[in-house]
TrEMBL record:
Signal peptide (residue range): none
Lineage: Bacteria, Pseudomonadati, Myxococcota, Myxococcia, Myxococcales
Database matches in Pfam families: Glyco_trans_1_4 (PF13692), Glyco_transf_4 (PF13439)
Protein name from the UniProt record: Putative mannosyltransferase
Chain ranges of the Glycosyltransferase subfamily 4-like N-terminal domain: 15-191
Organism for this UniProt entry: Corallococcus coralloides (strain ATCC 25202 / DSM 2259 / NBRC 100086 / M2) (Myxococcus coralloides)
């Protein structure tokens, strides 16, 4: 079976690209279509295939400035032609990938990480006062109706929608008026479950890990720990780095920048707990932390409610520094009942093999194949 994979862009290797890697393993002969591709930015499994890009690829400096071209993304994905004798188009979409035109008669299944979040419910997280300059906010307000309309209507090109969580399935229903099945994304459990459960949390620090994107709300953690005499280690970087790191911070808050993937299991295991501050579509990092046997202190909305349980973490009810600080203060008492083996067992429910089996079943349902038929 010949498959065309479609992904928004290939510039960084984060959660969405890890999903794409699992899809590439499931369909090893699939071709890949994307808006832009920075060679060498992806895993060998992604890089080692035919990759076709849009006209945006030819803009000088596009790989570092691609967000500035958001209004052009719909046109670029529609102009990206899938050429070849394909049996299936499978898009991995958090922006515009699901809007590609499949060849006539070729079914299109879209795995949706989120509707275009910056134009819907998280608009103010990206473009609100203090988040960006006034001209940028004005421009975003001007194009928002067009992008919302396109985001909704282009979904009609998809034959079957699969959401990465019940949370996103609800957004698909609300914003697109479509129903979606749910397949949680995979977690690379093997490298996190290799660390022993015994002796975890001995580093004495709380850990925040992720991209410095507006909706990730690292600012909530930083402000909370200004009031706490407890170490906070921050891993990552991103578009908000200059704003978040410009002012003076207490010495017990450390920025580690990006760290190698090989260092993450030990960072998780030695942390007292992972802090998870965004209202995330799904959220891979809480499961990585739990795979190493560590608990999570999470904002009690969004995908975290599907990956963290009362036995494996604490929830704080409001996305504010005060609410997070209160949860951290409660942690000492809560931690006495925590069992690392419960956290690992929870993470193991989200394995790569289970994801691939579920996607295989979605493909079979779309194509009317008998269960268990080969999809590669």
């Amino acid at each position: 079976m010949k498959v065309a994979l479609v992904h928004d862009w290939l510039v960084t290797h984060r959660g969405g690209e890890r999903v794409l890697d699992a899809l590439c393993e499931l369909f090893p002969r699939a071709d890949l279509y994307t808006l832009i591709h920075q060679p060498g930015s992806q895993s060998p499994r992604i890089e080692d295939r035919r990759i076709t890009t849009s006209f945006l690829q030819h803009i000088p400096g596009i790989h570092s400035r691609y967000r500035h071209f958001l209004p052009l993304f719909p046109r670029a994905i529609e102009a990206l032609r899938i050429t070849g004798d394909y049996d299936l188009v499978l898009s991995s979409s958090h922006c515009v990938a699901k809007g590609i035109h499949a060849p006539p008669g070729v079914p299109h299944l879209s795995y949706v990480h989120a509707p275009m979040r910056y134009m819907w419910d998280l608009f103010d997280e990206y473009f609100g006062p203090g988040r960006t300059r006034l001209p940028v906010r004005a421009a975003a307000l001007a194009v928002r109706p067009y992008l919302q309309h396109w985001d909704r209507t282009s979904t009609q090109r998809v034959d079957r929608l699969v959401a990465n969580s019940r949370h996103i399935a609800g957004k698909i229903r609300r914003f697109w008026d479509r129903e979606a099945s749910v397949v949680p994304p995979p977690v690379e459990l093997e490298r996190f479950t290799q660390v022993p459960l015994e002796g975890g949390g001995q580093g004495g620090y709380f850990l925040w890990l992720g991209a410095f994107a507006p909706y990730k709300r690292l600012d909530v953690a930083l402000e909370a720990f200004r009031t706490l005499d407890t170490p906070l280690w921050v891993v990552g970087t991103g578009q908000e780095a200059s704003r978040l790191t410009s002012g003076p911070l207490p010495p017990h808050i450390r920025f580690l920048g990006n760290v190698p993937d090989s260092a993450l299991p030990a960072l998780y295991r030695d942390a007292r707990a992972l802090l998870f501050t965004p209202e995330e579509d799904f959220g891979i990092t809480p499961l990585e932390a739990q795979a190493t046997g560590r608990p999570v202190i999470a904002f009690g909305k969004g995908g975290a409610l599907e990956t963290v349980t009362p036995r494996t973490g604490l929830f704080f009810p409001e996305q504010t520094p005060a609410s997070l600080a209160a949860a951290v203060r409660q942690f000492d008492a809560w931690e006495k009942t925590f069992r690392p083996e419960d956290a690992r067992a929870q993470a193991e429910r989200f394995s790569r093999a289970r994801f691939q089996q579920a996607i295989q079943a979605e493909v079979e349902a779309l194509l009317g194949m008998s269960p268990g038929s080969p999809a590669v």
